[in-house]
Amino acid sequence: FPVAYMNFKGMLESLDPSLDEAAAGLGASKLKVFFSVTIPMLVPGFAGSFLLLFVESIADLANPLVLGGDYTVLASRAYLAVTGDYNTSAGAAYSLTILVPALLVFLVQRYWVSKRSVVTVTGKPTGRSEQITAPSIRVPILLLVGSISALIVTIYVTVLTGGFMKVPGVNNEFTLDHFTFVLTGIGSKAMIDTATLALIAAPIAGVLGMLIAWLVVRKLRRTSGLLDFVGMLGLAVPGTVLGIGYALSYITPTTIFGVQILPALAGGSAAFSGGIAIVMVYITRSLPSGQRSGIAALNQIHPAIEEASTSLGAGSGTTFRKVTLPLIQSALLTGLTFAFARSMTTLSPIVFLTTPGIKIMTSQILAEVDSGRFGNAFAYCTVLILIVLTLILIINFLVRKVIFRGRTHRR
């Protein structure tokens, strides 16, 4: 749900509270305003979030693989068919059964959004938000949010404390051995490699997602649906199949008419120890989130704003950089944040691409779990969480304070 939260947060920040004030001035109650004004303005966010989360859930591998036991899902069956039975045909068949419902949800989402047009004329809020003070509304919502937050905190506390126990759940004596292993052994290289590759992939995926969203919503007509669908394929295709596809495609040098265009990007002899292929997978898997949040944000902004810029002589590139991109700043932050977090925590696509020269933290965590060394796995998770949270704060600061600094000065 954090993906949906970030998507809705960005959309709600761009809504103009004066719309609520106008509805209230016409005699509408707060409940009527919420359902007749606020909710319709969030239709693109509902559709985009549902599509993204459905595809994300149906293609998830790591969680069912670790927690499922004898209960299997399609993604884990595809993984086991390829890695356990060495039956790529069965893995492809499982993958097709995952792709079909994802495609159907995509088509339904497009139909639902296309039925209604919801935009804000100004592109940024001009009114003042009114706080909810009624206890009948505040108390139930706070109880629900508090319960969810308590569950999340419990999970984090369990992971944190488990890294300081000799054998979590069996021998709970305090020890620093697990963190020593992670910070001074193989884990140190895994931290550097994972963070470096994620920092390379995140800005590319974030900006590319915004660019595709802009083309889909503003510039293309007949081929917009096709481009939107192609951009989503990185998430619709199961990560296991995506990783195997990259491994098979780039394990040998790429040649055209006998001329080598690219060296081997995957396998033991790959260029940069397979780092290029991993970055490509990170971008492919992270792109859909920024694309969906960008499309949802652009659907709220009336094209007249960009048309005004064009009428004043600005080119398409200038309009996108100086007008459109600042208006969808929240969507860009969502795309960058998700792209980095997704790259740092993804597992299924890259388990087939790691080499002795490249260590990825999620792959190391899975190896520790398979070996029964849960203390090391908890320590890895704790370090990974700290790295992700720290770098996300830095990314948000840089985007808000540096990239959009000129926009603030012009105001």
The whole-angstrom Rg is 23 Å
Low-confidence stretches: none
What about the largest sheet?
2 strands, antiparallel
Structural class category? mainly alpha
- Element string (H = helix, E = strand): HHHHHHHHEEHHHHEEHHHHHHH
List keywords for this structure.
mainly alpha; 411 residues; 72% helix; two-stranded antiparallel sheet; 19 helices
Description:
The chain is mainly alpha-helical. 72% of the residues lie in helices and 3% in strands. It contains 19 helices and 4 strands. The chain has helices at 2-14, 17-25, 30-41, 43-58, 62-67, 74-83, 88-114, 135-162, 177-184, 186-219, 224-236, 239-250, 275-298, 304-311, 316-327, 329-345, 361-370, 374-403, 405-410; strands spanning 165-167, 171-174, 254-256, 259-262. The strands form 2 sheets. The protein has a two-stranded antiparallel ribbon with strand order 1-2. Strand 1 (165-167) and strand 2 form a beta hairpin. The longest helix is centred in the middle third of the chain and has 34 residues, at 186-219. 36% of the residues are buried. The model has no long low-confidence stretch (mean pLDDT 81).
Task: Reconstruct the topology from this structure.
Blueprint: H1 2-14, H2 17-25, H3 30-41, H4 43-58, H5 62-67, H6 74-83, H7 88-114, H8 135-162, E1 165-167, E2 171-174, H9 177-184, H10 186-219, H11 224-236, H12 239-250, E3 254-256, E4 259-262, H13 275-298, H14 304-311, H15 316-327, H16 329-345, H17 361-370, H18 374-403, H19 405-410
Antiparallel strand pairs: 1-2, 3-4
Helix pairs in contact: 1-4, 1-13, 1-16, 2-3, 4-7, 4-13, 6-7, 8-18, 9-18, 10-11, 10-13, 10-16, 11-13, 13-16, 14-15, 16-18, 17-18
